[in-house]
Amino acid sequence: MTQASNERIRPKLTGFMAGWLVFVGFYQMFLAAKHGGLFFGDNSLLQQDISTMTLSIAYAVMGVLFMIIAYGIWNLRWWAYPLGLVVQGMVISLALVGITRWLAAGQQAPIIWDSLDLIFAAINLSWVMARDVRTAFTNKESGA
């Protein structure tokens, strides 16, 4: 077999998506650091809520997972595709929980952060659903 026949074809925008996911990973870590305190201040009831700390930990884990997925996407690892879908579903769930919590508390301003998560999800999922992307990651010879 020649070198050319072993080389896989990268889908369009693979480099952009890997970089994008690194950015989103850092963004998730930012949310983890600021969740519940960015707009509410130090004396907020949400700031003292144990579930807020749980959400912060979940956002931090999401950030690390997005970094791992970015590595897998850049190197066309087979596991990056299903892991990316699972993690994206988790982020969508977290964003919806965040929006629901803030609406229930009557606080409108912080919804922007979770709304951005939903926008990021739409961008990520639109790329993942492209035929060339699915083919690159579901190809049986697409790497170890």
Shape: elongated
Q: Radius of gyration, rounded?
A: 18 Å
Order of helices and strands: HHHHHHH
Number of structurally distinct domains? 1
Per DSSP E runs of 2 or more residues, the count of β-strands stands at: 0
Low-confidence stretches: 1-5, 36-41, 43-47
Structural class by helix and strand composition: mainly alpha
Overall pLDDT confidence: 76
Account of the 3D structure:
The structure is a single chain. This protein is an all-alpha fold. It has one domain (12-138). It is 74% helix and 0% strand. It has seven helices and no strands. The chain has helices at 3-6, 14-34, 45-48, 50-74, 80-105, 111-128, 131-138. Helix 2 runs antiparallel to helix 4 and helix 5 runs antiparallel to helix 6 (111-128). The two termini are 18 Å apart.
Structural key phrases:
144 residues; mainly alpha; 7 helices
Topology:
Layout: H1 3-6, H2 14-34, H3 45-48, H4 50-74, H5 80-105, H6 111-128, H7 131-138
Provide a concise account of the structure shown:
This protein is mainly α.
